[in-house]
Every structure is written in structure tokens, then in C-alpha cells.
Amino acid sequence: MGYYMLPLGVQAVLLICYIIWDVILIYFIYKRLIYKHLDNIKKNIEELKDICTE
Fold it and tell me: Which residue ranges run through the membrane (predicted)?
């Protein structure tokens, strides 16, 4: 690709863009997959608390 041959300023901008892109991807993966799973666990715990208090 030859990124290492570009001027330092361009390399810095590209690096920042790649880091921002990675953060956005990780956030959406967390939000879509893990957060839903944790929300289901929280609902199950609340149901168990209701059953135990009856």
C-alpha cells in the first residue's frame, strides 16, 4: 500500500481514522451482541427474585 512513504501528517490522520473506525466497530459489536445478552440475564435475575419472594 505504501502508507509508510506518505508524509507524517497524512500518516497521523490515517492512523487516527483507523483508531476511530475500530472504536466505532467495537462499540456497535458490544451494543448489538453483548448488551442484549446482559439485558436477558438481568431480566432472568429479576424473574428469579420474583419467584423467590412469593
Answer: 12-30
Q: 8-30, pLDDT tens digit by residue?
A: 999 999 999 999 999 999 999 88
The pTM for the full model equals: 0.59
**pLDDT tens digits for range 40-53:** 888 888 888 888 87
Sorted by where each begins, the domain ranges of the chain are 15-53
Residue 2: strand, helix, or coil: coil
- Cα–Cα distances (Å) from 16 to 8, 21, 22, 23, 37, in that order, read 12, 9, 10, 11, 31
